[in-house]
Amino acid sequence: MISRRTVREYAAGSLWVWPTFWALLALVAGAALSQVVIDPSSRFARLAFQGTADDARSLLTTIASTVVTVIALVLGLTVVALQLSSTQFSPRLLRNFLRDRATQRVLSVYLATFTYSAAGLYTVGVAGGGRVEDFPRLAVSGALVLLFVTLGVVVYFADHLAHSIQVDALTEAVQSNTLAVIENKPGTAEDPTPEPPSWAVAIPATRSGYLQAAHPKLLLPLASEQKVCVLLRRRVGQHVVAGTTLAWVWRPSVDDPRLDPATFERPVNEMVNIGFERTLEQDAAFGIRQLVDMACKALSPAVNDPYTAVQAVDHLSVIFCALAARPLGDDLAVDGAGRSRVIVPCRRFADYLATMCGLIRRYGASEPTVAVALLRLLDDCLTVARDDPVRVTAIEQEVALILADAESAVKQPHDLEMVRASAAAIRRRLE
Question: Which helix (H) or strand (E) holds 150?
Answer without folding.
Answer: helix 137-164
